Structure formats: C-alpha cells, structure tokens
Amino acid sequence: MERPQFIHYKLETVLKIEKVVSILYMELPLTHTTSGESHNFWELVYVDKGSVVAATKKEEFLLHEGEIIFHKPNEFHSLRSSGQIKPSVFIITFVCPSPAIRYFRGLHTHLPAPLRPLIREIIKERNATFGDQFLSTADHRPSFKENPILGGQQLIRNYLQILLIQLMRSDTQNRIFSNQALLNDHLTQQVVHYLEEHLYDGASIDTVCTHFNYSKTYLCTAFGQSAGMGIMQYYNRLRLEEAKRLLRDGSMTITQISDKLSFCNPHYFSHAFQKYVHMSPKQYRRSVRPD
C-alpha cells in the first residue's frame, strides 16, 4: 500500500510580539502625574480601577475602569490620576513588527469583560517568572525568580498576542483588514500620501521607513505588490509630474525647479525628465509655451 504524502502547512502569524520592555501593575496616588515621554515601541494602558487621563500632543482621553488605550511608537504621551479614588493601572510595552499592529494606532476603547482575565494571566506569569515588576532599561535588567515557572515568558507573549487578536475580532468599526492584499493597499495609500506631502523635501527610503516604523524589506515589498513599482520610482514620478506643472507655469528656471524638487543637480534632473517625458525640460517648456 502506497504511503500518503503529507504536506507541512506553515501556520499564518497575524501578530508576533518580538520583545517586551515593561510589564507593570500599579496603584497610583491621587496626585500622580507624569511630564510625558515617547519611545520607539508600543504601549498599552489598561485601567483596572478608578480613572486616569491619558494625553498625547493632540488630545486627552479620560479612561474609566475597564478601558484601554494604545500609544504607537514615538508618540509623545503622559498619564495622570483623575477622580476621588486611587487608580490602578496595568501597563505593558512591547515591540511588534507585524503589519496588522497598525490597527491599534489611536485605539481607545472599552476592553470586553471576557478578555480581562488575559491581563490577569500576564500579571500572574510575570510574578511567577521575574523577581519584581518587569521594567527593562539601559541600567536595569529584570531579575528572574530563583526557580521561574516553566514557559512563563512564552505564555506572557501568547496571552498578549491572544488579547490583541481578540480585540481585533471584537471590532465593530471595520478597522480590520481582511487579507494581506487589503493591508498592502492601505499601507501603500498612506505611503503615497506621505510622499505627496513631502514632494519638496527629498524623501528617501530611510525617511519613509522611519516614519512608518517598518523595515525596508517589508515596506518595499508591500508597496511594490500594491503599486506595481518601487517607492522611490513612484516618488520620482510624482516629482517629475510636479516639474511638468512648474515648467508649464513658467515662473521658475529649470535650475530653480531642480532645486525646489530636491534633485541632486540640474543635470540629473534633466536626465530623469528626458527619460520620463521623452524630451528635455527646455523642449517640454517650448511645447507647452510656444510664445
């Protein structure tokens, strides 16, 4: 009898938590306030008791018991007590490079009751694994318990991933992307908007990736699959279309247009324009302004 051929199916990972920076559960004094901070990783704040005010540069959010808020990487934010009882808060900060994590940008919502035990499980695993509240800084490395519980670190990651995925599943505002293609399209639209806003700033792959907090490999692949061309190729087309407009306007010289659009020099600008339009900037200007 012929033996069946088995296929190894690679399971899809929607969200992957790579690192955890802090896991804190604190009762705050009534006068608690912070001057604010920003960092290059995500922060989740959950109010277990009382109320707090979470603020960004743009707005303030009053969080009551059972509410949760996310701060994206590099977003300035602060926290202060609000109310007549000392608030208790759970804060976890983490690194997640997965594209789907963008769902949580600006998310402030009520945490469904069935998901709250997941936070308790994270705290429980932290307490069974580490000797104190988990807070990793340049001059402080969290200590492990003498006999840490088996798999505690992995369960912390798993519970957090489950919490985030279940939050996405409970979405009622259609913020979720149903497949990778839609996610790529959404990300590409955002990149295009960024490039249009920085038409005169000489944007680069590095500045785009830093702004969106994605690796070059992922961002370039996602953009290419959606737009059918590279990010810089698209950006150059935007700049050259703007050059055509400026040439039609006639108020600037070719050198001024080259400088305004941040080309490295007029010769390179003319070469790129010739390749794109199939005529030189001077020829194009004469063709649209025969006078």
Walk me through what this model shows.
This protein has 291 residues and is of the alpha+beta class. It has helices at 116-129, 152-169, 180-197, 205-212, 216-227, 231-249, 254-260, 266-277, 281-288; strands at 19-27, 42-49, 51-56, 60-64, 67-71, 77-81, 88-95, 108-110, 134-135. Helix 1 packs antiparallel against helix 2 (152-169) and helix 3 (180-197) crosses helix 5 (216-227). The mean pLDDT is 89.
Oligomer: single chain
**Biggest sheet overview:** 6 strands, antiparallel
Structural class: alpha+beta
Rg on CA atoms, Å: 25 Å
N→C terminal distance: 87 Å
Strand order in space, largest sheet? 8-5-2-7-1-9
Low-confidence runs: none
Strand and helix order: EEEEEEEEHEHHHHHHHH
Mean pLDDT: 89
| Apparent shape | elongated
Question: Helical amount among residues, as a percent range?
Answer: 25-40%
Count the DSSP helices.
9
Total strands: the figure is: 9
Topology:
Blueprint: E1 19-27, E2 42-49, E3 51-56, E4 60-64, E5 67-71, E6 77-81, E7 88-95, E8 108-110, H1 116-129, E9 134-135, H2 152-169, H3 180-197, H4 205-212, H5 216-227, H6 231-249, H7 254-260, H8 266-277, H9 281-288
Antiparallel strand pairs: 1-7, 1-9, 2-5, 2-7, 3-4, 3-6, 5-8
Helix pairs in contact: 1-2, 3-5, 3-6
Brief summary of the model shown:
The protein has 291 residues and is α+β, with helices and mostly antiparallel strands. The chain has helices at 116-129, 152-169, 180-197, 205-212, 216-227, 231-249, 254-260, 266-277, 281-288; strands at 19-27, 42-49, 51-56, 60-64, 67-71, 77-81, 88-95, 108-110, 134-135. The strands form 2 sheets. Strands 8-5-2-7-1-9 form a 6-stranded antiparallel sheet, with helices on one face.
